[in-house]
Amino acid sequence: MTREQLFEQILKKKSYLCVGLDTDPKKLPQHLLDTEDPVFEFNRQIIEATADLCVAYKPNIAFYEAQGPQGWVSLEKTLQVIPENIFTIADAKRGDIGNTSELYARAFFETMQFDSVTVAPYMGADSVKPFLVQEGKWVILLALTSNAGSQDFQMLRLEDGNEEYLFEQVLRTSATWATADQMMYVIGATQAEYVQRVRKLVPNHFLLVPGVGAQGGSLEDISRLGMNQQCGLLVNSARGIIYASSGRDFAAKAREAALAVQREMEVCLEQYVRHV
Ligand SMILES: O=c1ccn([C@@H]2O[C@H](COP(=O)(O)O)[C@@H](O)[C@H]2O)c(=O)[nH]1
Questions:
Q1: How many other CB atoms are there within 10 angstroms of residue 254's CB atom?
Q2: Which of 115, 116, 125, 126 has the greatest count of CB atoms below 10 A from its CB?
Q3: Catalytic positions (predicted)?
């Protein structure tokens, strides 16, 4: 999917919601446990209930890997039921020496047909570039994450005369590896106060923003400070949507939660994106 196609979907749905499919077998509604593949059945119903309200789905790969071979089967089946025009993100946080990264890229872009994969920047250019060779596929690079530990390295000040934060150096350097048509960045919703610094370095890139909902980040703040004229944001919520209810009504309640976010997004789009 291209940046323009993604923006078209955002305008059409008046939404930049990414639903996180962080499906924990321990949290599944009781009545699904008798089905052949409860994780898939849960995802299928969540997707059916939310597909018109979101523009992306982001399964966090940990939830599937932890289940062994059956987890990979559930993930593959889930990918098959995501409608074509919805952007898919493998939140896998990969990256290794070049030849290993090539195989990670093959795993997520060929064996499984994801549109994008999250990648850690710590090993540098040769660990990221193998994910950039396939047209239409995206790298989403970790830049300023939503967790408290982001302070440990990402917020270190560099003694380079500019006193930049390390995350700013990551943005500056990695922006030379790929254009805004192939690279996005993870910026936590809990980091809204730094988003203007991010936008100075990468004004046109899409930002994948986790951390609203369960982690307490503000959708309004991140939208006001982080939007560009093509929206430029995919805001993820997982637990706040998929676990809105643990009962038989889980899909209907997930829809209600997604709808509430989409309505807030519609207002933000009208306010902050000029040609909406
Ligand atoms: O900085 C980051 C990077 C990734 N995540 C992932 O996003 C979701 C958030 O889930 P919620 O339930 O909406 O909190 C999850 O998969 C994280 O691993 C992040 O939270 N922060």
A1: 25
A2: 116
A3: 93
Specify which residues 209 forms β-bridges with: 235
Alpha carbon nearest to ligand 1 atom 9, residue: 210
What total of structural domains would you count in the chain? Answer: 1
Give distance in angstroms: CA of 24 to centre of ligand 1: 14
Considering the entire predicted model, what is its pTM? 0.97
* pLDDT category of residue 163 using cuts at 50, 70 and 90: confident
Q: 211 alpha carbon to ligand 1 midpoint, in Å? A: 6
Tell me the residue type at 247. G
Q: Report which protein residue has its CA nearest ligand 1's atom 19.
A: 210
Look up the domain containing 23 and give its range: 3-272
Q: Which residues line ligand 1 (CB under 6 A)?
A: 20, 22, 60, 91, 145-147, 186, 188, 210-211, 213-215, 236-240
Residue 162 has pLDDT above 90, yes or no: no
Q: What is the mean pLDDT of residues 180-195?
A: 97
Q: What is the CATH number of the domain that holds 214?
A: 3.20.20.70
Reply yes or no on whether the pLDDT at 223 is more than 80.
yes
Average pLDDT value over all residues in the chain: 97
Q: Which residues pair with 87 in a beta bridge?
A: 56
For residue 94, give the H/E element and its range: strand 87-94
Q: Distance, CA 33 to ligand 1 centroid (Å)? A: 25
Listed residue (155, 174, 173, 151) closest to 164, CA to CA? 155
213 — pLDDT class (breaks 50, 70, 90): confident
Which positions are annotated as active-site residues?
A: 93
Residue whose token pair is 């990256």: 95
